Amino acid sequence: MHQLLKRFRVSKDLEVAKLSKGMASAMQVVIGLASRAPVTIFDEAYLGMDAPARELFYKEVLNDFMEHPRLIILSTHLISEMETLFEEVIIIKNGRLFTHEDKEAFQQRGYRITGDEQSVNEFSKDKTIVATQQLGPTKSVMIYGSFTDDDQRRLAELNLERSFVSLQDLFIHLTEEENEDDE
After folding, report:
1. What pLDDT is attached to residue 126?
2. pLDDT at 114 over 60
3. Which of 16, 57, 94, 102 is the most buried if burial means most Cβ atoms within 10 Å?
4. What is the DSSP track for 91-146?
């Protein structure tokens, strides 16, 4: 614990109530890691930490997990910073479980198709589109779902490009609220 306090530059002589938000978060991280509980939960543990402290947090979580394997749950909205730590993705939307699966499998189901508007529309007509962008005659859609050998064939026939989307982008578009029309 003393090593972690030193790494996070948290003085053991200060009262917790007098710590800044970042230092209080660092203290909570130190306690969580030092506890070595079989299940360790960090709920937005980085709040108030600057970028170097967050990077240290990610590194220490990974190091501690490697030395003392256990279930570590990271609740976060900063997915792009933390995604290298994830093995599984659990998304809760509107209080309900939306998905719980292996990170790689989840990420494979999100992809972007780009090309001329008519071809993109043809390809994506039976797909779950979670985001759309258009610039002139070029259209891009983000799709959430399986990608089959037949899809690969159709992609070539329609002269379209496929690219993968980041875990962060996939999360944002799958969890955003539907826009409701004003009545």
Report:
1. 92
2. yes
3. 57
4. EEETTEEEEEEEHHHHHHTEEEEEEEHHHHHHHHTTS-EEEEEEETTEEEEEEES-
Helix (H) or strand (E) segment spanning residue 161: strand 161-164
pLDDT(181) > 60: no
**Phi and psi angles of residue 107, each rounded to the nearest 5 degrees, phi first:** -65, -30
Task: Answer whether 2-85 and 108-175 agree in fold.
Answer: no
Question: To 10 degrees, the CA torsion angle through 128, 148, 101, 78?
Answer: -60
Domain ranges across the chain: 2-85, 108-175
Contacts of 21 (CB under 8 A, 6+ apart): 47, 48
CATH top class, domain 2-85: alpha beta
Task: Tell me the CATH architecture of domain 108-175.
Answer: 2-Layer Sandwich (3.30)
3-state secondary structure of 78: coil
Helix axes 21-35, 51-67, angle to 10 degrees: 0
52-81 pLDDT per residue, tens: 888 898 899 999 999 999 999 988 888 888
Burial class (CB in 10 A: 0-12, 13-18, 19+), 116: middle
> Amino acid identity of 33?
L
- Cβ proximity of 81 and 61 under 8 Å: no
* The predicted structure's pLDDT at residue 93: 86
